[in-house]
Fold Protease 3.
Amino acid sequence: MMATESSGVTLSARVILDDQDITKSPTDQRNYRIVELDNGMRCVLVHEAEARQASAALAVAAGHFHDPHHAQGLAHFLEHMLFLGTKKYPDATSYQSFISAHGGNHNAWTGTEFSNYYFTVDANYFDQALDRFMRFFHEPLFAQKWIEKELQSIESEFQLKRQDELRRLYQVHKATSNPKHPFSKFSVGNLSTLKDQPNNSLQQQLRDFFQRWYCARRMTLVLLGPQSLEQLTELASTHAQAVKSGCADVWDIDEPLYLSEQLGIELHVNPIKDARRLIVTFALPGINDDYANKTTSYIAHLLGYEGPGSLFGYLRDKHWINTLAAGGGISGSNFKDFNINMQLTEQGMAHRDEIIAALFHYIQLIREHGLNPWRYDERRVGVMNAFNFQEQPRASDLAPQLAVNLQHYLAEDIIFGDYRMDGLFQPKAHQFLDCMRPDNMRITVIHKDLPTDSIEPIYGSHYAVHPLSQQQLETFRACTPTGVKLPDPNPYLAEPWQLQSISSDEPTGLPRAKQTAPALMSWHLHDIDFRQPKAHLYLGFQLPNVVATPANFAQTRLWCELMLDILNEQCYDAEIAGLHFNLYPQQQGMTLHVTGPAHYAPQLTNTLLQAMLAPEFCQQRWKDLRQRLMTNWRQALLHKPLNFLFSHLNVQLQPHTYSVLDLAEELERLSFEDFCASSPQLFTQAQVQLFAHGDVKAEQLAPVHEALSTWLGLAEPLAPIDLTPAALDTLPNKVTVNTQHPDHAVIAVIQSMQNSVQQQGVFMLLNQMLQPRFFAQLRTEQQLGYLVGTTYLPMQQYPHLLFYVQSSRVDNQQIETAMNEFFDDMPTLLADITEEEFDKARQSLTQQLTEKDSSLRSRSQRLWSAITQQDHDFSRLTRIASAIETLTMDAFKAESKHLFNNKSGQMFLSACPANFDRSR
Ligand SMILES: [Zn+2]
């Protein structure tokens, strides 16, 4: 027993494990302790000496599986209601305002068997924030007024998901599984599932659910901050002790996920969008007890392999599939769906049974030749490299993750559990492989033109279920050989990773630039601050021909996709070993980003550049990928209207940014011959900026410089491309687009054409202080929609402030009216801001801006972004921070007033469904 003294009361907590007993990555500087409070709540305390923010997360073993049959969605509704008032803090906006006023953010989710609540806040206010947060779990009010309002929010969330392809498929999945298994329940809830019942009000239902499932024994709490482990223990005891202990209600699912007639079937589903997908699902038993061996992830690794001779390579070369992912699928206490999920080509639709037959052949191959300890060990080496040189997760991600891990894993494994691979356990592997047979399989085919005969009642998807035919079963069982093989040993996993030593002439601190050719600027920083033998290489290509016309831009995008496709097979072993690359066109030309173990990253970059020199494209593959791009682009109007508006805003304001609908038209006009003939011209004029960061030495870059010069010449420097955004006073101040999504959405934009650090500071402060007010008024109070918020967006350092709402309840005019009322109220809102609030906002923003980099990755991103923004002394963020520090409240208010009065610097972008009839 460990006892701590606090205000005269003795608090006690039993230590379960201390730091030395918990398996940690060597890069992990945090200290951990796991305790159990008197009421049975288990807590993970995490001390991070330099943290400026503190985080908390509480996971509870209560999710939508626990919903009563007559009130589906109740767990989710309860998650919303907990935020809206407790005995001590009855005001519904109190928690949210407190968190945002102190530089934090908060969120929550409801899953199948767990729900998770979490927040971050400035570390000095942790105690006060916990006082508000922990009361959710012992004295929520469930006030009638807020039940009524928040039901609207649930309904909006439901309406929003009606257009969500995954959500619709998920509900068909539920409709075709065992109705006695809790998975079959509807998880989101809506106005028809959540309501008062005779003699049982919704308020009472909430109280009963809370009473039954929300007890300390079902909860795990994580507190993370700069406080000592003793102080954190005391915080946990102080704030969590009032949660009732409760009984850990036994929760066992004794029903199987599928009835026998729900297996050995083919399920046809019509999507909203133009998609072609084949998902093969095998019904496995639960895998919670297998986490130390990771048998399914080992099998998935073999099935999903994409190197030479792989199943994927075979199916792609037949031009039947574009992508293949293995191992995903729902899982829970007594079930695991093992999915092989493939995006089909047009041809592939006609060869589905052959695809599945090839899959069965590969499974046979694994069973007979794939269960080798050396393969398992190779996989473990890769996973251990990832663990030993793990980039430390951000505190705000770590806390909720640990809370859930403590529910699933042994206490010593809360960090290591996701990585632990004790060995290949043959009986388990055979058990799972034996489950991979036609009569234990469900095939899901997703396509618009499939005939269907049923309608899923909640989201309205059309589907049909067919038992597999005798002929199908025979095809699958025949196991016709396809010439595929299991992966060869991976050369990239032969050598362990290690740090290179720093020599005295290496630059440290900030990146240094070196002009290595007239049109090649090479930035380099050998950086081992994070003790990571990893590197990031960014190559920014300025290519005037690429950005000159939408036709060229579309062509470049297709060129990048084809290159990635070619390189993917060639470099798949490298990918498995942790080397990753991406290639995409942007406003100035193109970017290549390579990251991974430092002794391979420059070498891989070189290999990639060599391949780009004179690529040979396959015509059929060109057709498949062009089709895929055009289909994706053409569906933009079906996406969430807010997403469409954000990209539309970019097209309106940013030079050399094109509408995806226009890009699709351009690709339609392009022939394979023209593509091959004209692609080299995209690269005839080029200038390159290279940034190599991490455990990489200057001399490793010489081959990369050489490959770049060989490919692109780089003998002539180019004039810079002007990326200044369009001024709003040159554009119409109202733009409406017609979309094919039933929701309405509006983004209001406020722009400044001054790109000084002072002006950026004003915008950031405004965003910080208006965000909670806007949310409270338009979402919590008026319930206009589920997606409501503000965001700060700089474009080439020109600040923009965006206010957005998406609604399934009201139309775009009503949203605009509500926004205008909010803006008209600005003088009062500004007058309400107190000196204290202003100081806190200033303080929390300057803290965020000057926060130390948390990982190599985030430092790389920050430095690269500075290089591309011409911030060559890397001081912009600090200068914004000092501008904020010296800004007075009066100057801030005067400037804000001016911004809101200047109507020509504003724009309303609206989305309205194409067939929307205002008179209805
Ligand atoms: Zn929700």
Observations:
- Residues 76, 80, 157 surround zinc ion (CB under 6 Å).
- Residues 757-781 form the longest helix (25 residues).
